[in-house]
Predict the 3D structure of the following.
Amino acid sequence: MACLELSKEVKQEEEEEEECTNDGTVDFHGMPAMKGKTGTWKAGIILLLNQCLATLAFFGVGVNLVLFLTRVMQESNAEAANSVSKWTGTVYIFSLVGAFLSDSYWGRFRSCAIFQVIYVIGLVLLSLATQLYLLKPKGCGDRTTLCGPHSTMEISLFYISVCMIALGYGGYQPNIATFGADQFDEHDPREKQSKQAFFSYFYLALNLGSLFSNTILDYFEDDGMWALGFWASAASAFAALVLFLGGTVKYRHFRSSGNPITRFSQVIIAASNKWRVEIPENEDALYEGDEESSTTAGGKMLRTQGFKFLDKAALITSKELGNEKQSNRNPWCLCPISQVEEVKCILRLMPIWLCTIIYSVVFTQMASIFVEQGDAMKTTIGKFRIPAASMSSFDIMSVAVVIFLYRRVLDPFVKKIKKHKGEALGITQLQRMGIGLIIAVMAMLSAGIVECYRLKYARKDQGSISLSILWQIPQYSLIGASEVFMYVGQLEFFNEQAPDGLKSFGSALCMTSISLGNYVSSLLVSVVMKISTTDNMSGWIPGNLNKGHLDRFYFLLAGLTILDLVAYIACAMWYKGIKHGEISQELKEEDKCKV
């Protein structure tokens, strides 16, 4: 059904007149982008396929990394869970690096290409290290045979390769999401709808890419064929790179807008230097700037209330009035109001962003604690064995189903109801993120209840594994449903609300939330283990889960998510969105499109 919807939108674009985009995008040669020749779903589908293949490669490593660390690298369950959380956190913290370079200097296309090359090299290095050095003795790394100790050089090679994978995938991820959104003109009603749909399809492509990793590759790796799985990931990443470069002439591009740190620093310093000056009620005293400095692709940013101290950066004093007349403005003393609003914009996003971190703590359990829990359950149905990590396939299927139901049933239904009340919007992005938190609470409660029964049967049967791994289906499905509301809503929200020169940073905020969620998860596991292992107790998450209380850890996460939901509701009610003025109808001569 999703493919059918995409094909209809592609056919509509083929009927598009040969005209120029209205958002300031350019083609590969730096000329104004033509609607009929660049962007839209012609480019969007290439980027979705690229994302699918790149994600397949990433999860080919990440989905079973916790088992690789225990079976091959000889780490304990708690150590492996912490290592995976830290590594995943590092992946997404690198998204800030990629976003900064993209928004400031390289542009999104060049950033995507460079980081994908690093990504491919890291995967090839990991495959070589695993095949030549880490799987010793031969045949080790499966469910029964652990690998022997490794030399410092072999361990270093492993960590260098996974760090390169983290840098490559992390730097690429926020840019590919924003680059895909760039292919749709915000000021064209039809393309604006396609842009909103793109984020749902983007997240669906991400999950479909991981489906192959969580099923086919997972079986090979779980049976000890780690090198084969890693080589398949490397091949997929290389194919993604070739596909991406193959679509070069079809892409639309925004020009990079310079170093945001400099722009932000100018506002802070200019406002601080005028801390004693009172702001008059008359807005004419605030510096509007020239057309180039105060107008972006989305239109002129209007002054908003709140953070009034920063408005002093745009306050024109008698000294600055003289400098302005002489066209000698010092940007460290006087900033346009649009530049001030950029800083306000990011400051307003911070509370919302902080409230998404606890959700990411819940989400990261799927790649670590859920797998360890599943590994301690009955994984066979007759003669067929289900690898614990492959249960995340139910998360992926849940994402696909809920995206379809949301776009085709729920959102149109809510819009129809609101239309009768005189409201144009359906479920807002902030409301979707709140719904995601509620479903995350349900997922943790489900996981905790399953663990209670698993422990009950394990202790009753003196440690034997009797509860089927299929009882994990509800918790995985609920996590998948929550992702559609939280992460897709997040991507749309941060991309829409970030200033035009910081769109990649907006996407990076979503990725960094996942990053900090992994670090917080690692810290939480360490604290829980330290507290719960006092008085010679085995702790909540010991090597043998039958001796622990993993259920209490799940209920703890459910409680923390409820507290986070309360804080989130307060922040969402306080939040005021970005305000743009009308777009100037007069285009610069060099930006006019000749048809």
